[in-house]
Structures are given as structure tokens and as C-alpha cells.
Amino acid sequence: MNIDFSAEELTFQQEVSAFLAAELPSDIRDKAANSIELTKDDFVTWQKILAKKGWAATNWPVEFGGTGWTPTQKYIFDNECAKVGAPEVMAFGLKMVAPIIYTYGNEEQKKRFLPDILASNVWWCQGYSEPNAGSDLASLKTTAIRDGDEYVVNGTKTWTTLGQHADWIFCLVRTGAADVKNQNAISFLLINMKTPGINLSPIYLLDGSPEVNEVHFDNVRVPAENLIGEEGKGWTYAKVLLTHERTNIAGVAKSKKRLQDLKEKAAHTSDGLSGTKTMLSDNSAWQQKVAELEIELLALEYTELKTLAEVSTGKAPGPESSILKIKGTEIQQAIDMLNVELAGYYALPFVRDQFLEGFEGVAIGPDQAAGSAPTYFNNRKATIYGGSNEIQTNIICKAVLGL
Amino acid sequence: MDFSYSEEQQMLQQSVSKFISQDYDWDSRQAIAKSATGFSAEHWQLFAELGWLTIPFKEDDGGFGGSAVDLIVTMQEFGKGLLVEPFLANTILAGTVVSEAGSSEQKATLLAPLMEGSLQLAFAYAEPQSRYELSNVQCSAVINGDEMVLNGHKSVVLNGAAAEKILVSVRTSGESCDREGISLIWVDASTPGVRRECYASVDGQRAADIWFDNVALPASNLLGNVGEAIDVIEMTVDKAALAVCAEAVGAMEMSLTKTVEYSKIRKQFKVTLSTFQALQHRMANMFIELAQAKSILLMAAMEMDSLSGRAPKAVSAAKSRIGKAARLVGEESIQIHGGIGVTDELDVGHYFKRLTAIQFLFGSTDHHTARFAAS
Predict the structure, then answer these.
(1) Partner-chain contact A401 B284, CB within 8 Å
(2) For A40-62, how does the pLDDT look when each residue is reduced to its tens digit (9 = 90+)?
(3) How far is CA A384 from the centre of its chain?
(4) In whole angstroms, what is the distance from residue A71 CA to residue B1 CA?
(5) A221 Rama sector, left if φ>0, alpha if ψ -120 to 50, beta otherwise
(6) How far apart are the C-alpha atoms of B369 and B321, rounded to whole Å?
(7) How close, in Å, is residue A238 to chain B by CA atoms?
(8) Architecture of the structural domain at A247-400
(9) Topology of A124-232 in CATH?
(10) Could you tell me the pTM of the whole model?
(11) Which A positions 304-323 lie with beta carbon below 8 A of chain B?
């Protein structure tokens, strides 16, 4: 056991840090620092820079263009990126559908889809949830009925994050009997968003952003060659992916950076008790809350590192990875709330345009105060998506404790 | 970074684990805890033969040269058996003081017999007014040439009853709470003027309050430089804090296992408790607390081994987090067991008691949260 970085790891850290200093576009960095929403172009630009360096796919095997990094290298990379506010790569292509394609897809599909995902030429979105299939995902009703060389898809997908940018959608669809509990009737299908019969309607969230969508399929004809693996195995594929996904979901590096920023801001925010002499950071109740959160995050950091170390020895992440999702999102939300507390009265003003590119009005309140409450509201989603935290708790009960 | 145990560590773990599972069943543990001395001299001799009493000490001193990771490997297994033998108080606390501050003569007198299993020591550092502040020392030693006189009262000295010789933190100059002016001395328990009130602690272990009334000692009983002991004291208590964190992880693991097993057997409303989601989720929370505790324990042990200078802060993080986990796991294990959980008969209540005691040993959860925040 050894906590220290080796000489090679230190060199790698310098390499990442130098790369970020040289290659992260300053307008993207400034947006992140000022809570301005990133555009599709911003994400694509940054991912293409990563791709050019060969660092876009940190979780893929080397043979398909992955980095082949050790867990420690991934840890270093994530931390360095978070430190400078580099955007996190969009998970849908690189982290969600790609592993399914290279694990369960045929050679033709790998050749057809993986290079464009790696190069960020194509934007993917996810079609899992439905209006009546949330936590009970297996009760999904969207059908794909085989008709010659095609499937005919009908139904509605929802919570489709940034679907308005997407070129392709990966879907769980019902190819078999309508028996709602029959998970063996579910298949994994890739659908081009430009196919006739697809309609997208935005859903506005509590922060006013059209971040998610409903996607309607009305007799959408999809070539059968877009089916991944076997019919009826989609549920199994998605489940395997979800355990992998949970190891990425903790967001430890980003939470570390946010907590650090929060502490710095609290050291320059008057607590109101002594004119302007004493700061929020001097308040013992505040200190205790921040310290407890830092300690929880530190524990989670090592829970994640241990999980990644096990994965790197070839083991699939166990159901224990549910801890990463539960604790990671709880910590994110606790930081969200502390940011609101820090803002105080200035958590109240809400000027939606302030968070969009090109805003030229007067920014009200201290830096980032205006974003605190919208972020808090929006991010209540974190304990709900990806299998709600209660579903994760059920997984621990069943798969770990045998209850 | 590397998260795997070495082959040596795996062997150490297996050997301690084998002792606990084969020679330390619940009934024998209870018999030992209730005996006159509160620990088994026979087991202690076995620990010496197996080399366990040398684990924390440098090879130069005749020790095993064990790391902090070796220490937590050992203590986790001891925690599973709720060991009452004074490994923590004698070997880790008192032994570390001698190993860090003692001269070679003092090591020959105190450390060598400790490692052979023939000497019981204790380290008296806490006082009624000090709570967890290690520099709050009012016990005094007045040095006069080759002699000194010791006065004061030390609180809740672990292994204080069995100790033949006692290491004591004393003030040799300055005011209570000054970091300078604190020294370490050793005193034979039979010296005139030493008075002990010995008692059992709530967790079945043994301790004593000790009074020193004009105890005359040779100045050669001082360990290390006069007035400069605070660093050694803090380092020693940090090591002990890490050790009880590991012990708590072992004890929590058993509490969780026993609770889950019981929930699968006990029936109410014609079904086992394990079928109720209200209880399932409480047990899942216990599991999550344990996992977080294990992670932060590992972090703190590795920081202690790394010479990064971050060890004190890391230990406080671990003690704070594990204190919180110990409270939840201990209390929930009782709640889920129901009435049987509050009986003296069942072992789960005794794990709860030890987990409670650990929360207050070497600094409470809140004390360590504040120390983490301040560093």
C-alpha cells in the first residue's frame, strides 16, 4: 500500500497540467468560471482537442482508441481537469453507448460508430426512461416491431438530456411480448435522430433551462442492422453498463474543486456579525459543516480509488459501486446547498439570461451567487437519475447483503 | 499509488484472524473480560511468541518495523474479536512513547521486556481538566539536580491497573496548555506516593485513575529532552487513534454481519425481519457507513506511512468519520435486533459498547472534526 505518486505519475501530472494550460480554450475556461452555460460547440470543440491528443476515451480499451491509463492516471487526469474548470466530456457517446458497442456490437457496428464517437463527430443521447417507466425502467412500453429488414418504433422516451443537439439516440425498446415484467423482451437499438417520425419537445427544469426533452416515435422505421447484439438481451447489456457508469458518476474531482472554491469564497464573505471584520469562514457552525463534507468526500475519494483499482485488475465493478452513486450525489447536493447559504440574500435574484452566452446586462450580486439557487434546484435530479438513490440502496440490500 | 496488501500483510492478517476465530470465541472472551486481571496472561505470552508485540517498533530496537498499514491490519482483526488484552494501551501507546523518546538504556529496561511479553506498561497523559487537549498538562515534575518530585492526577489511564511501570506526561515549565515545557517520565507503580483507583470500563476493559503525591524519582527517569515532549505525545496519540479506528472497522464489520444474519432468522408478522424495506435500508446504510470508514482508514494509514506531513490531519479525518460511522452502526445494530439487542447476554450489545468507547478515546468525533478544520 502506498499513497504517494511514483516519478512516472508525477511526470504524467505535469504533462496533463501543461496540456490543459496550453490547449483549453480561454473562452471555455472563462464560461466555467462565470457559470455561463456551455454551448454544443463548446463541448465539441473541447472534445475534439482531447481526441487529437488521444485523451478522449479514458475508459475504452486501447485497441479501440482508448488511453489505456491506470486508475491513478485517470485520477490525476480528472483532478487536473477539474482544477482548471475543463468541461467534463459528454458521457452519452464516449462513456455510455461506446462501451456497449465495443462490448456487444458486431465488427461492422464497431467500424461504423466508434471512430465518430471518438472524434466527437456525432452527438449521442439516451432513450431509456419513459413517462411511465422511471425507477421501474423494465416496464418501458416503446415498441420496435420487426418488419422485413426494419424495426418500426412507436412510443415516447423522456428526460433525454440535450437531445436537442443529438444526431443519434440509443434506446431500450420492447421487441418481444407486451408482458411488462418480461425483461427478456427488451432490446438495444440505435436510431438516427433525423429519421422521419421522430419529434422532440423540450422540458424546462427548475433553473429555466431546456436541458431535457421528450422524444416521440411515430412509426419510425429503423434498419435492423442497428440492433446491438441479440434481440431480448438489451436489458442485460444496459445493466452491465450501468455498473460501469456508476464508477464515473461520483464526480469526486469536481466536488473537490467546488468545495475548495466554496472555502475561498467563504473566507471573503462577511458573516455580518462585526461590520465587515469577521467572515463566514470564521463561523464554527459553518466550519463544522464544511469539514464534515470534506471528510465525507475524502472517504469517497478512496472508495472510488479502491473500486477503480479492482476494475483495473479485470474485475467488473461490484454492486458496491452503488455507494459511489449514493454518496457522490449526496455530497454534490450538500455543496449546492452550501453555495446557496453562502450567497444569502443574493441567492434570490433570478435573471435567466445571465447564464447564457452573450449576456450584456448588469450582473446582480457577487460572482456566482446568482447561479447558486438555480444549480441547487436543477441538481436535485442527481439523487433521482441513473437509478435513484433508493434503487441503489435496494441493489446493496439484494446484491451485497443478500436481503 | 497502490492499494494492495503485501504478502507479509496478508500473512499477518491471516495469523491474527486465525487466532480470533479459533481461540477467542465469545464465551472465552467474556470469561477473560470478567476475570480478576481482565486479560489472559496466556494469550499475552502467545502474542509475544508470535511476534505481535514487536509490530509497531523499529528494527533497530528489536521490533518488526511494521508500518501503519501493518498496524491497521492487526487492529481490524482484534476489533472483530473485541480483544481485551492490552495491545492498544501497552504496546501501541506506552511502547511508542518509549520507542520514540527513550534512550537505549530505557529501551532495554522498558521496551525489550514489553516486546517479550514480560512487562505491562501504561501511558498516563489525560487529566480531569484536559479533555482531549494533549498540551493541557498540570501534573508537574520539579527537577532538582539528579532528582525530581512528581505531583498530580491522571485520568482514565488505559491498562493503568495492570501496569507495573507508568509513563507520564508532566509539566516541567510554563503554564497549562503551553506546548513547550511538557516532558515525559516513567515511574514504577510501586513507588511511594503513587495511588491508583482501578476499575473496569464500560466496554469490559480495565483502567485506573492515578494520583502522584510528592513522588520522589531519579532525574534519569526522564525520557527525551526536558520540555520538548509534545510532538512525541501527539504522534503517539495519533497512532493510537488510528489503531482504534481500525479496531472500530473490525467491530463494525461484525456488528453488520451479525445484524444481517439475525434479520434473516428472526420472524415477526410470519416473515423474517429481512423482508421489511424499512429495515433493509437501515442495514444498507450501515454497509455504506462501513465502506466509507474502511476507505478513510486506509487513507489515514497510508498518509502516516508516507512522510507527507499530512498524517495528523488525515488521522483527524479518519477519527471524525469513523466516529460517526461507529455511532450509526452501533446504534442501528441494537435497533434492528430489537429487545434482545439491549440484553447483556448477546454479543452485539458489547460491540456497541466498544464502538461507543472508541468514539471518545483519543479525541471525540467533534474534537477531530474541529482539528481537521483548523489544520
Answers:
(1) yes
(2) 999 999 999 999 999 999 989 99
(3) 13
(4) 9
(5) beta
(6) 8
(7) 24
(8) Up-down Bundle (1.20)
(9) Butyryl-CoA Dehydrogenase, subunit A; domain 2 (2.40.110)
(10) 0.94
(11) 305-306, 309, 320, 323
